[in-house]
Amino acid sequence: MTAGQADQDTAPGGTGGTGTGTAPKEAAGAGGWIAEALREHEEHERSEQEMQRTEQPAGHGHSHDAGRTASAADGPGRRRELPMADREQQVLDRIDRARRRRPKVREERITMSHGAGGKATHTLIEAVFLDAFRNPLLEPLEDAARLNVNGTRVALTTDSYVVSPLFFPGGDIGDLAINGTVNDLSMSGAVPLYLSAGFILEEGFPVADLSRITASMRAAADAAGVQVVTGDTKVVERGKADGCYINTAGVGIIERDIDLGVANARPGDAIIVSGPIGDHGVTIMLARGELDIEAELESDTASLAGLVADLLDAVPGVRALRDATRGGVATILNEIAKSANVGVLVSEDDIPVRDVVRGASELLGIDPMYVACEGRLVAVVDGSQADAAVAAMRSRPLGEQAAVIGHVTEGPEGIVQLKTAFGGTRIVDLLVGDPLPRIC
Hints:
Layout: H1 3-10, H2 25-55, H3 84-100, H4 119-133, E1 145-149, E2 152-161, E3 167-168, E4 171-172, H5 173-186, E5 191-202, H6 207-224, E6 227-236, E7 244-253, E8 270-273, H7 279-287, H8 305-314, E9 318-323, H9 328-340, E10 343-347, H10 355-364, E11 377-381, H11 386-394, E12 403-409, E13 416-419, E14 425-427
Parallel strand pairs: 5-6, 10-13
Antiparallel strand pairs: 1-2, 2-7, 3-4, 5-7, 8-11, 8-12, 9-11, 10-12, 13-14
Helix pairs in contact: 1-2, 2-3, 5-6, 8-11
């Protein structure tokens, strides 16, 4: 739908494509996404109602008017228009209802979108894995589980790495595996200590490449102050894998009296990112050589353990920490809004993005907000301590460009809104899939 179509659809008294386009200018842009969202949600509701009718016994179907909404047609060729504010609230209400439905995987087979970190991933986790393994330690769905072992608070995490290509500017699958596991432990406030490493190798994989990967892992572990203390190796037939996959687990000790989690976010809290976003995901995409784009860019893969320690030492009001991997910053913001039943408002102008990442993203048709990082975190901090948090991050090279990008609001609950560079606002929802698969 073009902007001109949005003007016609939302013009006062307009009918179909014959509107005069006299709607206020500021309403035109907003009307576009509202009208589009209304249509999408109406189509989804109609499909669900049709499914319910086909599943019900004869004589118990819904009436033919069940699919009508406040914006349904009032007569042939006409569409009853609600005021802008009412239509926007209608969209928000429908999004809220959709999110409160019991998660259900509708696909019969796993697709790439189920591993992308977006809506499909969340649905798979909640409908299959959480439903099967539900317990109080798993339910928070944080980056690491927090356990109490004989009076000692322990953090436990696990992760798997299938990045393609295995070697890329700024790193490889080896240091990515170490840094990613260390960062997941750090996000719980733990001091990372010990890791495991499991390798799934394809027949014919070069031993020289494996040695290069393990050397990179050793260097990353030394830099992060952790040790790989156990592991496993499996080999599969040629063509049954993609060279090398790595699985890790990590253990750390939570020494501070803290309980970090996105559910702790409160209205007035500041949302901070530790540096420019999207570097890793765009680097991987360019390294695949599928696009004729050249750029001076490297992955941001790095251990965040030291930065987190400095932040927690300086700021007692840290509520939550998340590393912005699959799904990017946008996914984390949605997790904050949903888990804490709050709203989130961020400013596009305040989000640090390198020019090369922004330019490559525009050429690829993707939003940097959804692009993965491997050395950046998002922090939710008491609003009164935001300056101290930014200062603590900027004292470290990895946090030199840390910035407050927005705040937690009273509402609308579960909704992330972005204040655009043009002065309007738009909803930042979870993506179903991922524009850049297999980036970690």
